[in-house]
Hydantoinase B/oxoprolinase family protein
Amino acid sequence: MSDTVNKKSDGVPPLCDPVTLEIIRGAVAAAQAEMEALLERTAISAFIREKKDFYTALFDADGVMAVGSMVPIFGDMTTPVLEKFPAETMQPGDLYWYNDCYGSRGAVSHSNDQVLLAPVFNDGRLCAFVMSWAHFADIGGIHPGSISPDATEIFQEGIIVPPTKLISAGVTNETALEIFHRNSRFPDQSIGDMRALMASVDLGVRRIGEIVDRFGADVLADALSQLLVRTRKLVREKLAETFDYGTYSFTDAIDTDGHGNGPFKIRFSLTREEAEDGDDRFIFDATATDDQAPGPVNFLMNRGVPGMALGLFYLGGDPAQVCNAGGPNAIDEVRLREGSLLKPTFPAPLGMRGLTTMRVLSAINGLVNVAGGKAPAANSAYVITIMRGNFRDEDDGRLKRFLLADGIGVGYGARPNADGIDAVYFVAQENYPVEFLEVGYPVRLRRYGIVENSGGAGKYRGGCGIVREYEILAEDMMLAVRIDSVKNPPWGIHGGMGGGSGRVTVNPGLANEKILKPLSDGNRLVKGDILRMETGGGGGYGHPFDRAADKVLADVLGGFVSTEAAERLYGVVIRDSIVDRAATAALRENRPETKAFHRQEYVDVLA
């Protein structure tokens, strides 16, 4: 990733004044929103249209991300293209495409994600790049959906597309698209999604072109440079406030890789030292992380990810700030170890890297907390179910194939001043509505709600997970399921307790009840079976006895906490839907002792 920053000479005023800077920032954000709306409304597959698993971004003329989406797993998206297609060879109407994880050094981190990148020109001058990115439902591989715990190498996870010129000066490489779509079991979806993704980028090129026409290429370049400098400066200031000189370390873990291996430890350190020039130097070190997994939970972490995650934490959702490469550029060095879980050696599988990604983000929160910062407690990792099989068409009675990839929300960690978020998938992505599932797939939802007691107890309660109960209407079905944080649930902090774990049950309460492995494939279900999915919750923050009794009562009445757990964990006695104040006061006099972290028990350090 380029370290390009604004280096205006002292005394030389910027080309872009503060008012114009904000106008340009807003115009770019509006262009992004319009690109995303077009993609959402025209895509075919549910994971894009309903789940909203897509992102857009604007890069400056050097390929540095100047305005991105609020997603903490972006890396250096343009260098893979620029290395093969130098900027001086590009021309208006070009469009570039890739999904090559290893070839992009983790800029894209599993093969289902397709990246399209287009240059923006003005009077023959390269001014910017526009990107749209989306998760495609099926690109080939060992099983429908292309993602499976069964995978042992990336070739089993679908077709790999190296950086490719998809459109050259307005002429589309139709042969490349035909090869790609031919590898999908559901080519109509693939064709529709690619058209939507291409249209989104085309719209972005036109909208950014209009901004250049209005303000000029030099003013836009200066505005993007200022936004990068502003973010980098803010993040470095916040890092210095959080981390004193020295080294801070934190360890988190994922349970398994689906092949009987694990747990796998993620070990991070962040060092602040004084450089020879007297400036601060921040070093992020992940080299102590465990070796790569045989199964598909490896996360090929781009070097920009730690700084992006820290940057988003310090930006704190402030709409006046911009998510961009200023976060990654605030970290002076990122150290990874070849052959580790976070820098696996090709062709290690990557399809279920989402489990590890979520643990990485929680571990970064842990680093901030160890240094005395105020990051949230750990969150659970969002759950994926992939259902594939055959159903009988009501019109002609013929068996037809279906693929349902259902991403299900979980509980997020409590914050220093607020409860964790309940039932959230990841950032802005959404849970499928009941009506959509029942109309589009051979399932019936019998139950959909909050998992009681799944949020970690604390002064601020961890977010709660979701329960979904499907009745299978298909003639037959194979199920792949991805749940983590069962053996190593999300940790609570400062007295807050860890979050609850998820589970998968077939035919709950019946004679043929069966508990499935939380990371497994090849689970066969038939018509009439009941599948219950329960997802985990986030860790709590602060001592549970410090939670206001009325808030505990509200949690009980709302179905988030049981009456028994209110008394046992929070010291709040509830009788007939009313807080027994005297009994609560007496119970809370015997305040349990706590330690810094909680994961099944209180500990000073998570090892």
Observations:
- The mean pLDDT is 94.
